[in-house]
Amino acid sequence: MKSFLKVKSVGNGMAQLLDNFCEKNHLNSPNDHTYTLDERICFEHWLKKLKFIDQQYKKEGLGLEIAKSLEAKHMGICNYLARSCHNLLEYLDISLDYDKLWYDYMDKQIIHQTNEIIMSWNKPSYYNLGLYRRETEISEELEVALYFIKTKQMTDTDIPIYNHLELAIPAPKNTKLYEDFFQCPIIFNVDKTTLFIKKSILEIPLANSDQTLLELLKRQADMQLSTLPNNTSFIELVNKNIIKSIENRDPRIEVVANYLNMSPRTFQSSLKAEGLKFQNLLSNVRLQLAQQYLHNPELSIATISDLLGYKEQTSFNRIFKSWTGESPLRWRETYTKK
């Protein structure tokens, strides 16, 4: 979980976007300095910035409102790459990599159909562990809203862009606020976020198309991409399957390797190549889950031990103390006092 939150990142333009939004709404900005062109914000810090604004704004639809402040510069080179294409459908084919330059989050899947393009991505494993839930929900709706605003700006159209949306966030009290913003029906509280984009919108010719410039920009973007970590998708996949093995009360390396369609030896070699050890990843997931469960006073220590896949509560007590310096019961009491 920690590796994902610290390795994934957003571009410096997103910090400028938050500054613009806060200035317009007379809020304190979460940014404590001006970000340089090459500077990136790790995802954990990004989520904390969103939380800082949310605590001041205190209204539904924060991600939608932030997206309204979008300017071309906020997406950096990706904006100019897209504008140099014949249309956004052409950009879509290269966007899976290049969009990471402004919002490096979950990997996207794209399906081409006759009349629509389907783009989707899963929830991160840290969210399923109860970490940064509210902040991630804001980030999720913000990313979808930024795609929406960017498409409208580039195609200069008032036609609805999405046939419908499925958002992996809880249903807000005012669902009409979201449906009016996106101009389409929305299903909330699903397993993954999915955009059903009208293909006809993406086929609208762009006014500043320039194939020569596009090739030059690709070279520059490729250089920027080469500086981003490339192992986070594998780590995220491993973490998700570790969680699955814990839920099935059998968190062994052989079980997780089987989920990944690998032999244990191949799995261990893949982890070693990334500088990782299975036991460290398992311990990290168990610690995050244990602390989440301990926040719930209705769960006994014995129940938590079982939920984490330990055969004996004494084993859980001993290992938890090695992680935190405190027994589970003492840690719970300390948290409750806070």
Automatic annotation (TrEMBL):
Keywords: DNA-binding, Transcription, Transcription regulation. Pfam families: Arabinose_bd (PF12625), HTH_18 (PF12833). SMART domains: HTH_ARAC. One of its GO terms (cellular component) is cytosol. Transmembrane segments: none annotated. Residues 232-334 form the HTH araC/xylS-type domain. GO terms for molecular function: DNA-binding transcription factor activity; transcription cis-regulatory region binding. The keyword Transcription applies. InterPro entries: AraC-type_N (IPR032687), Homeodomain-like_sf (IPR009057), HTH_AraC (IPR018060), HTH_AraC-typ_CS (IPR018062). This is HTH araC/xylS-type domain-containing protein.
